[in-house]
Amino acid sequence: MTKRDLVVKIAREINLNQSQVADTVQKTLDYIAEELIAGRTIELRNFGVFEIKVRKSRKGRNPNEPKHEVVIPERAVVKFRAGKELKDAVEKLNPADFK
Fold first, then answer.
1. Residue 10 pLDDT > 90, yes or no?
2. Is residue 64 pLDDT above 90, yes or no?
3. Which of 3, 25, 39, 79 is packed most tightly, with the most Cβ within 10 A?
4. HEC string of 45-98?
5. Rg (CA), the chain
6. Angle between helices 18-37 and 3-14 (to 10 degrees)
7. Which residues pair with 52 in a beta bridge?
8. Residue 61 in contact with residue 70, Cβ under 8 Å?
9. What pTM was estimated for this model as a whole?
10. 3-state secondary structure of 44
11. Is it the case that residue 51 has pLDDT exceeding 90?
């Protein structure tokens, strides 16, 4: 599902103008990004938590030249932890349906 698909689905369900829904969805995503960039955690109850974590520096190898080690510097990454309701719903899925 794309952002556009989401906008269309919401607009149809609640009978609103697609441009209004698109603006609302975009603003929501902008605010989530702003908070993460500021180093704050976003908690959406029953859905999940977005947070910034620091991935430690590590050694890696170039697959084309496996003899040479490359230092991969530490960096900030976005992590998502599913909330209880989402986690429970996903656990009920049949894994064979996704292969």
1. yes
2. no
3. 25
4. CCCEEEEEEEECCEEEEECCEEEEEEEECCEEEEEEEECHHHHHHHHCCCHHHH
5. 19
6. 130
7. 78
8. yes
9. 0.78
10. strand
11. yes
